[in-house]
Amino acid sequence: MSYAKIHLKTGKEESLNRYHPWVFSGAIHHAEGQPEEGEIVEVYDSRKNFIALGHCQIGSIAVRVLSFENQPIDEQFWIRRFEQAYQIRKNLQLIGAPHNNTCRLVYGEGDWLPGLVVDLYGNTAVMQAHTVGMHLIRHDLAKALKQVLGDLVENVYYKSEDTLPYKADLDAENEYLTGGQNVSPIAIENGLQFQIDWMKGQKTGFFVDQRDNRSLLERYAHGRKVLNMFCYTGGFSCYAMRGNAEIVHSVDSSAKAIALTNANIALNFPDDKRHQAFAEDAFRYLEQSGNDYDLIILDPPAFAKHRDVLNNALQGYRKLNALAFEKIRSGGILFTFSCSQVVSKQNFRLSVFSAAMQSKRKIRILHQLNQPADHPINIYHPEGEYLKGLVLYVE
Predict the structure, then answer these.
(1) Cα 349 to chain center, whole Å?
(2) pLDDT (tens digit, 9 = 90+) per residue, 35-90?
């Protein structure tokens, strides 16, 4: 099949020769024809040597590379990509294990499927497109996904209304691409049950990227008074409960999140009085709380989604952590995170360091945390590393 051609300026192929999967608009000399957003294009260097195939898009990232080989981008291509992603998760024992039926099956560039995310919750796959190219072939992707997973998945739900470029004016709708009849909203993660609201919840309905970090928290929870800030579905709260925490308090500004947290606690720990949940602003709650907690989790939403608000985000992390250092009891443990991709590990640590200096307390790093293996980082695409966290001991 013949595709439209993109020709680069002299020397602008260097990052692509290092297999970085993005072509920036400033690197393009000219295009043959007028490729539409979402079309597959061939990319050539200034000497007319083939470099890559990818989805064309409008914006600073002009092409997201699908392949550095000149090959057909057809049904078999998508099947191979899904099969490779599936085998990784199967080897990690995240698929087909009785104690776990929840994982991220596809993580964009980390699985050489840029612009696509697929999360598995029991017998349902939730697919999310971040590019026009992936949106336009969503039915083909669902078909290929079903062929690879077979009876493991009965439903493919497409949830991209809020993730596609708004300028594309696609009028996308969230919908079941396959199935939709035999749907179970209960998923299992490390033996704990969670109700997943993929239709109305944030992202794909659950934050599977904190699975390993939640397990670590469980080991620290025994006998402690736990405060879970920005609790959303109560994932950390459930692990703390199973870890035999003395009390667990969950806080989120969203009443819907609090209802979902309470439902998940009841699902796993019915009639357990150790847990309470509060629909309140996180900063206000911390400011007004006493010094009762000796394990605090700070897992806020992304404070910065763009570099132009980076400084404000770093100040937000500093203020939040400073409040936690002020309130946590001596000998306490703080789990603190940033999920902002534009916030580097170094910048995040600097914000936490500034908060520690402000508190004038002795603080030691016990663990440095990141995203789990089902969110693999393409070694040629460091931008895929977004989740960073610290476990701190506060004297």
Answers:
(1) 20
(2) 999 999 999 999 999 999 999 999 999 999 999 999 999 999 999 999 999 999 99
Q: Which CATH number fits domain 75-190: 3.40.50.1100, 3.40.50.720, 3.30.750.80, 3.40.50.410?
A: 3.30.750.80
The answer to whether 321 touches 298, Cβ cutoff 8 Å, is: yes
pLDDT tens digits along 14-34: 999 999 999 999 999 999 988
Indicate whether this model's pTM tops 0.90. yes
